[in-house]
Amino acid sequence: MKILVINGPNLNNLGAREPGYYGVNTLTDIQDSLADKANDLDADVEFFQSNHEGAIVDFIQASSQDAHGIVINAGALTHYGISLRDALIDSRLPVIEVHISNVHAREEFRHKSVFADIAVGQIVGLGHRGYQYALEFLVAHLGEKASR
After folding, report:
1. Candidates 22, 68, 128, 131; catalytic one
2. CATH class of the 2-147 domain in this structure
């Protein structure tokens, strides 16, 4: 089972970027722990990060055919990334949306997600662990769907 783990703008600066909101773990730290978790779950993960919406759309279009699900932290694209939303829909894969900070306890504009209604679920405010919870859930969700 292959899961795409996608990160949007500015997430390459994790560890240095506003640690009060995002913690001190770098994106590499998060990816390393997810690779270990995926191994425990007998899943494969493919990581991608870009500061450009079009690059993320291109990645989804190129990679979704041999994937089973998507974990995405789209960063600021969450609030206005319509072409990214369309690519996620076109992938026909289950999507779990992740945010390290509690976006609902922050500025008003962060409360709206253009992915909320197409995602299987959202995990917000649980720090870097949210990625692991998303991966665990998605693997279990896909396993349940396969056994039906």
Report:
1. 22
2. alpha beta
